[in-house]
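Forgive a beginner's question, but might I ask you for the amino acids of a protein and the tokens describing how it folds?
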Amino acid sequence: MKISFSDKQMTVFLSGDIDHHNASSLRAKTDTEIIKQKPQKLILDFSDVSFMDSSGVGFVIGRYKTALDVGCTTAVTGLRDRDKKILMMSGMENKIEFR
């Protein structure tokens, strides 16, 4: 995972597998930076993610809530079609931007 900041925007570049083995450390690192930086826009980039289970869906929903708490909007990009459909079925289609 890599995090970059640019013009009040925070982009989290995720890679590899997002599963129950590594989701908690990803959550902690991302939340710490959201709270510290208070961006206006959070972008979660899944372009280099090879596998995502329900922990990945939980990761997105949780980061959306953390971002919302600091007045930040959330977008996701680079999701595989299957993962995008699952995330949209979870009720996030009207809460986050899908790119």
Notes: The helical segments are 23-37, 54-69, 81-92. The CA atoms of residues 84 and 98 lie 8 Å apart. DSSP finds three helices and five strands in the chain.
